[in-house]
Amino acid sequence: MIYTKNIATETANLLLKIKAIKLNLDEPYTWSSGWKSPIYCDNRITLSYVAIRNFLRENLAKVIEEKYGKPDVIAGVATGAIAIGVLVAQELGVPFIYIRPEPKKHGRQNQIEGHLEKGQNIVVIEDLISTGKSSINAVKALKKANANIKGMVAIFSYGFDVAETNFNSENIELTTLSNYNSLIEQALNSDYIVEKDLKTLKEWRKNPELWMQ
Fold first, then answer.
1. What is the CATH number of the domain that holds 129?
2. For residue 204, what pLDDT is reported?
């Protein structure tokens, strides 16, 4: 679910303003999952814009405090949410850790980097939610370490059914600053896209796995 409608709209507008949202309907992007997509959301770009970075930091921290109170630790999912996770942890004045996709093959072979004690209350930070696979992978690693996961917050979600299923299966509540519907609504209002593009984006959203196959 989104935090509030106003924040969802403002976040979408900021992402569009700095062209963190890439659209290419003629030559679609290929995601790591193999899906073809006419849209690509690159939230890492937000780190280069101080005002937008501050907006995201402050509002992610606000979501966390309102929903869960101050956690013991903030956890970022590598690699996209490490930087924004550190900023949120700094805003809240709490420790930070991050979770790799898998344990390292050398050294201490850590999957969780940083100091974590059993039973600590954690909120997980993500930059982007697509299928939710990497997010749930991080959740499972934290559960294995006996952490108490209060919930997850993210900048943006495509809102796919598969992601909702994945989060429900692990009993993890997800809150995002913005989502796909808010994004395409603002993209149309700001002339970032036209009606023809909107039709394609809605068709893709219905069945992204099979789109263009």
1. 3.40.50.2020
2. 92
